[in-house]
Amino acid sequence: xxxxxxxxxxxxxxxxxxxxxxxxxxxxxxxxxxxxxxxxxxxxxxxxxxxxxxxxxxxxxxxxxxxxxxxxxxxxxxxxxxxxxxxxxxxxxxxxxxxxxxxxxxxxxxxxxxxxxxxxxxxxxxxxxxxxxxxxxxxxxxxxxxxxxxxxxxxxxxxxxxxxxxxxxxxxxxxxxxxxxxxxxxxxxxxxxxxxxxxxxxxxxxxxxxxxxxxxxxxxxxxxxxxxxxxxxxxxxxxxxxxxxxxxxxxxxxxxxxxxxxxxxxxxxxxxxxxxxxxxxxxxxxxxxxxxxxxxxxxxxxxxxxxxxxxxxxxxxxxxxxxxxxxxxxxxxxxxxxxxxxxxxxxxxxxxxxxxx
Length: 357
Description:
Radius of gyration: 21 Å
Helix content: 25-40%
Strand order of the largest sheet: 2-3-6-7-8-9-10
Distance between the termini: 66 Å
CATH class: Alpha Beta
CATH architecture: Alpha-Beta Horseshoe
Order of helices and strands: HEEEEHEHEHHEHEHHEHEHHHH
Shape: globular
Oligomer: single chain
Largest sheet: 7 strands, mixed
């Protein structure tokens, strides 16, 4: 694979138009020529952190296709730059593009820990696992500076509340101390995303994520400490990583993962345009084949919005993927089980010692 991307270190190679805006963004050739002649940089490709202060932080998940009831995100936008990311479209709600803006304009919810604590102390709240990163990765590069994920984990521990984590960054090991404490009470479950065993594939699909070696190492270290890990082999993209399913399953199982899950890629909203532009630049010789195979999984379209089918796909290629996943689970996860998290402790910790009187 040879990446011909002109904007280094980014997944998207353009800013798509925001469907909620009357304006569109275009980089004109005459502007680029002007910058060249003037010796100026047309695009500095810098990441910008923008503080925001929402009123709530915990979101109820209503989609039947997502294996969680509640999620929370400390950051909107994600510097990892995964080209297929379904969360890209949510950046349009903030007035930005789902393309480069999603990777370079990161909204930081500075008050996330306080909002979470208020939620967990609410008399109406009943303990139910809240998953960090239901939308964007809680251990993306911004976390190194703001440490909002670590602060929120301390809140979960304080109130003995179950929490799930979904990430593809080995930065999670920084918080091993808190994760071990949470695990003593059965309050933590971790989902590590591993989409390929090829570094070359990872670099073009997920340009600012941690290496595959470090992700497998994270699974091993967490598992060695008794922390349950589910491996997310997602998304499976026919023609790019679909041939790796069995090898991926073996690798994550060998490193201690207790279970695995998958999705078939779907390119909803603006992501279809972003992905198509990307693959024609990054993998020009494979572009048509991959796009056609994705379409074959979704009734001739790049996207399918039907609940129950949109993340599973249908047709011959999707069936082949499902068969491989079934074989992988039977072969590598036959006697393994991911535990249910403990929801019984939170009520007595909700109001601190006052609950004792």
